[in-house]
Amino acid sequence: MITLYLRTEDRAAMTTALIDADLAAYQQDAEGYELTEEPMAFVGDTQTDVLDIGTLYKQTGTEKDVPVMTAEPGYHVNVITTDSAVQGKLSTLCIQPNSPQYRWAE
């Protein structure tokens, strides 16, 4: 299995990248109009799965024993696949986190 940790500037850029990689599509209603509330539907095959994470947060301190969390830059998605073509299409978005917050079960 190939695990990809992806990051873009924002959700719109990630949506475009996943659509270009044939892993997502804009949802449409019965008449074919695009839905705006949730524009992305994952459409990968049985060899690929997509985890839409969004913004990641990191603890940067504490205040009165309560963790203070700060948003990490970018929009994050994890992909697991057996298809090397998917990896090729998304390679420019790949990052290598030191300790991923989300992992696939083995």
Question: What labels describe this entry?
Answer:
106 residues, alpha+beta, 4-stranded antiparallel beta sheet
Task: Please tell me about this protein's structure.
By secondary structure, the chain is an alpha+beta fold. It has one domain (2-95). It has helices spanning 11-20, 84-90, and strands at residues 2-8, 24-26, 40-42, 48-54, 57-63, 66-71, 75-81, 94-95. The strands form three sheets. The protein has a four-stranded antiparallel sheet. The longest helix is centred in the N-terminal third of the chain and has 10 residues, at 11-20.
Q: Please state the overall shape, judged from the principal axes of the Cα atoms.
A: globular
Low-pLDDT segments, ≥5 res: none
Distance between the termini: 10 Å
What's the mean pLDDT score?
84
| Number of beta strands | 8
| Percent of residues in beta strands | 35-45%
Number of helices: 2
